[in-house]
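Example 379, ligand coenzyme a persulfide.
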Amino acid sequence: MEFGLTDEQLALQEAARRFAQEEIAPVAASYDQSGEFPREIIQKAWKLGFSSTTIPEEYGGGGLSSMDSCIVTEEIAWGCAGFGTSIMANDLGLTPIIVAGNEAQKKEWLSACASEFTLIAFCLSEANAGSDVAGMQLRAEKVGDDYLLNGSKAWITNGGEADLYTVFARLDSSTRHEGICAFIVPADAAGISHGKKEDKMGQRASDTRVIHFDGVRVPATQRLGAEGEGFKVAMRSLDRTRPPIAALATGIARRAMEESVAYARERKAFGQPIAAFQAVQFMLADMAKEIEAARLLTMQSAWMVDRGLRASKNSSIAKCFATDMAMRVTTDAVQVFGGNGYTKEYPVEKLMRDAKLMQIYEGTNQIQRLVIARELLRG
Ligand code: COS
């Protein structure tokens, strides 16, 4: 068993860390305040190979492994989780093409995304079907060789900024998951419109919207997999993208711990730095041990994805543990900072707001527990 990173991975980590320190962290608070989308910085991340990372080399991509992608994601999230989510959502949007695209689709769409900056959004959730994917209502109607999409998606990351969508729609209303299809849909297709950017508690730099599909015509050549396979395409995609979400949460928590250590060394009470008090030391020690555990679970699930093993249980364990951990660690970081931690003058209240979303998106942590329990009980 090898716990160390390779020389290439250390170089990748160092490059991503520098990018997060120099390009993201200094502007994170201002994007958090304005809620603007940092398109130029995201594009720069793409140019440097930190976004759309998993496109295989044969289609012109960086061909990074899931492990590599987790290494990058932790660093970017250290800089700002909203940036991390925008970058990660891009890879999530691409994943259905990687897992279910035929050769012609991969050549056309993955190559295009590798050669030109393209933002992608994964359109799965709906206002009344978030956890219950099989309950989606967006309709796909077969008309000749095409499909007509009608309905709306909700909570779509990169929704208003994306150039390309992967969309899940219901062909057969008499079934549940058996009636769902997956499609590749350019964002400029006639009939697509989007709602306002959601005014979120945290991760405010990321763009989250409702997308409306009003008679959007999609040729059959843009269907991913067979008719009725869309649900499984979504599940297989999420198995692969939950390890980077765990890495994102680990990055938020690591930032909170580092800020807490620095503050505890400086801030004085009763005539000495608060780092001298065991009450504070224990909080810092708990942060460190939980972050280490989350990172190891993340690496284990990424390792499984990279070996083509079914990673559902381990991806859900990593996602659930790391995101609950980020919530605990950032809450304790605010506690270490005391009253200062509750103000926007200091960085930890943003980290706590950003961490909350991690327990909700990419499958709530209640859904992760359901997946883990089902995998255990399946025998
Ligand atoms: N890989 C491959 N196939 C899978 C799978 C996976 N990870 N998970 C489930 N399946 C298959 C099942 O084997 C079953 O196949 P058969 O009908 O051939 O036996 C089928 O898919 C249906 O699975 P299941 O019965 O478990 O579906 P449910 O409707 O009970 O829902 C949950 C399953 C709740 C796990 C699913 O809806 C889910 O993941 N929800 C959360 C969605 C989410 O993460 N949203 C975030 C959006 S992206 S920000």
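Summary: Residues 122, 124-125, 131-134, 177, 231-232, 235-236, 238-239, 312, 361-363, 367, 370-371 surround coenzyme a persulfide (CB under 6 Å).
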